[in-house]
Design brief:
- The protein is mostly helical.
- It is built from 7 helices and no strands.
- It is globular.
- The termini are far apart.
- The model has no long low-confidence stretch (mean pLDDT about 95).
């Protein structure tokens, strides 16, 4: 069994890498196709954020009976949880760290789009992604680690 520290560090790195990969290649890559399941991210979420200066009104109330960008995001997160459940027995801290990271991602992402002033103070890289003309970069939401590692952290001069 991997040590506790190794599982924790790998869980954080895996979650952040997954966030970067998912955002760049799936949400923006596949999401550019209007007929794709992933189109909600580009054509609904980004459109709302651009129109409302980072605010996405869809997060203001949760209606689990409606198929919208917020319920699709939750469905994807739940799918990731279920996909990794078989690993819980062998790597409990790794999976637990991933699960905690997913919850933190959802909390921060939702809060950023409900409270743009908070986002500007705490998730500057995510504001740069939505409002700084840098949607082809700044893929991470929770922490910008993989953006720095991959050279995709682009600081906006317009938001200074």
């Amino acid at each position: 069994m991997l040590s506790v520290a190794v599982q924790f560090i790998l869980g954080l790195a895996y979650a952040n890498a997954g966030e970067w990969l998912m955002h760049k290649y799936i949400l923006h890559g596949l999401g550019r196709n209007r007929h794709s399941f992933w189109a909600y991210h580009w054509y609904e979420h980004h459109a709302a954020c651009t129109q409302n200066a980072m605010l996405d009104p869809g997060y203001q109330s949760m209606n689990l009976t409606t198929w919208n960008p917020q319920t699709k995001e939750l469905a994807v997160l739940i799918s990731i949880v279920l996909l990794h459940a078989p690993l819980l027995i062998m790597f409990p801290l790794f999976v637990g760290t991933l699960y905690a990271s997913l919850m933190l991602y959802y909390y921060k992402h939702r809060k950023a789009h409900l409270d743009p002033a908070w986002a500007k103070r705490h998730l500057r890289w995510h504001c740069d992604h939505h409002l700084g003309g840098n949607s082809p970069g700044n893929w991470c939401v929770t922490w910008p680690w993989f953006d720095y590692l991959m050279g995709t952290r682009i600081k906006s001069k317009t938001l200074e």
